[in-house]
Design brief:
- There is one protein chain.
- Helices cover about 40% and strands about 20% of the residues.
- By secondary structure, it is of the alpha/beta class.
């Protein structure tokens, strides 16, 4: 069972996205990571989409072919997530190594929180 899904909506920020995905890769427990590329063309091409395909093959990449804006991109990402919990991150976020474990531990200890 996947405990945590991380959804990142990106719009033309491949360098920020690279730093964010690198930081997430080092987190434990390893989350399911979903990137929604709002800048990808109908063919699924953009610098950010190319980056994810080349450097982060375990990341789920969604290319809706149009800009769904922030809310629509997050809704799309959460709709395909498998985690018990979902965390919405901006691509310029660099989570510290223990942050996701602390988040999951808190949620597991406090099931009354949403």
């Amino acid at each position: 069972m996947v405990l945590l899904s991380v959804v990142i909506v990106d719009y033309r920020t491949p360098e920020d996205l690279r730093r964010c995905l690198t930081a997430l890769h080092d987190c434990r427990p390893m989350p399911e990571v979903i990137v929604v590329d709002n800048a990808a063309s109908a063919a699924g091409r953009s610098p950010s989409a190319d980056l994810v395909r080349a450097e982060f093959p375990r990341v789920v990449l969604l290319t809706p072919g149009r800009n769904l804006w922030f809310c629509g991109g997050n809704n799309l990402g959460v709709a395909v997530a498998h985690g018990k919990y979902a965390l919405l991150l901006n691509p310029d976020t660099i989570p510290p190594p223990g942050a996701l474990a602390a988040l999951v531990a808190f949620m597991e200890a406090h099931p009354d929180y949403a």
